[in-house]
Write a structure and sequence with these properties.
By secondary structure, the chain is an alpha+beta fold. Helices cover about 30% and strands about 25% of the residues. The chain is globular. The chain starts with a helix and ends with a helix.
Length: about 290
């Protein structure tokens, strides 16, 4: 592996060398040379940033592959293909969980483990290590996509999170809504779990922001030619994954065809009826139900 690591290590040291060249060029007062050196430094920093991002992604993929081996799926739970280059672990930990809408489980508190990834949550039971059964140490009892997960902030109990799986994956109640009360004794852990489960939805400028796992998609219905450098030209049929929206009718996103990104006017596009829209409708429906209770 050393022959693969050496070029990467050398690339990460290049900014120090080019910074010295920039300082030397500044000392010579050669404006053309200084401009070229600064441009080169900018490009080198971009390269190093990309190298670091790729290395981090590789480490995350290796971690996911290791985690995938610790889970066992019983026959009544649909198996989930965990390994993906775009997936990473956000938080994990043990908690006391009550299943609120199950009469058989409602009065009982279970000690279960939560594994929160960027796009999915797994609820698992730790198997008894004293039993000679062998195999993976965790048994998954249910899971749900993060887009189909909702934290009920209207309900309150000290150090408790009220989590709703709008569509679960247990065959016993597959596709049903499951309500959980998650009690976390530590106040610090409770706060950190809340932060992990409820990502920010509003930017510093008041714009609506979307997570990678729950982005709306727009399809262009009328060509638009970019006017500003931070805008993106679009043609009919272009599909854009939106990460930001402003109240005055603009969206920032990435075109799926070539990865180009920029601001586009929303009135030149239609929203695609996809998983994001379905999840949004399910959340609205649930909010309407609890508001009338």
């Amino acid at each position: 592996m050393s022959f693969l690591l050496l070029p990467f290590q050398r690339a990460c040291r290049l900014p120090l060398l080019v910074e010295a060249i920039v300082n030397a060029a500044d000392y010579t007062q050669d404006k053309h040379l200084l401009k070229q050196a600064k441009h080169t430094l900018g490009q080198i920093r971009k390269l190093v940033k990309k190298c670091n991002e790729c290395a981090k992604k590789m480490q995350q993929t290796e971690q996911i592959a290791e985690l995938a081996r610790i889970f066992e799926y019983p026959s009544h739970v649909k198996m989930f293909a965990l390994v993906s280059q775009s997936r990473y672990l956000v938080k994990k930990g043990e908690a006391q969980i009550t299943f609120n809408n199950d009469s058989k489980k409602g009065s009982k508190v279970y000690k279960l483990w939560l594994f929160l990834f960027n796009d999915v949550i797994l609820i698992a039971r730790k198997k008894n290590s004293m039993l000679p059964s062998g195999g993976p140490p965790f048994e998954v009892i249910d899971w749900a996509k993060r887009s189909l997960m909702y934290v009920n902030e209207m309900a309150y109990s000290e150090n408790t999170i009220f989590l709703v799986l709008l569509e679960n994956q247990s065959h016993k109640k597959s596709g049903k809504r499951v309500e959980l009360s998650i009690h976390i004794p530590s106040q610090n852990e409770h706060s950190r779990w809340l932060q992990a489960l409820i990502p920010p939805t509003e930017g510093d400028g008041g714009e609506k922001i979307y997570e990678e796992w729950d982005c709306p998609q727009l399809i262009c219905i009328k060509p638009y030619q970019a006017v500003q450098p931070d805008e993106m030209s679009i043609d009919v049929g272009d599909v854009v994954k939106v990460t930001k929206k402003t109240s005055d009718g603009w969206s920032f996103g990435e075109r799926l065809g070539d990865g180009e990104s920029g601001w586009i006017p929303q009135n030149y596009c239609d929203e695609i009826e996809d998983e994001h829209v379905r999840a949004r409708n399910m959340k609205h429906q649930y909010k309407a139900i609890i508001s009338h209770q």
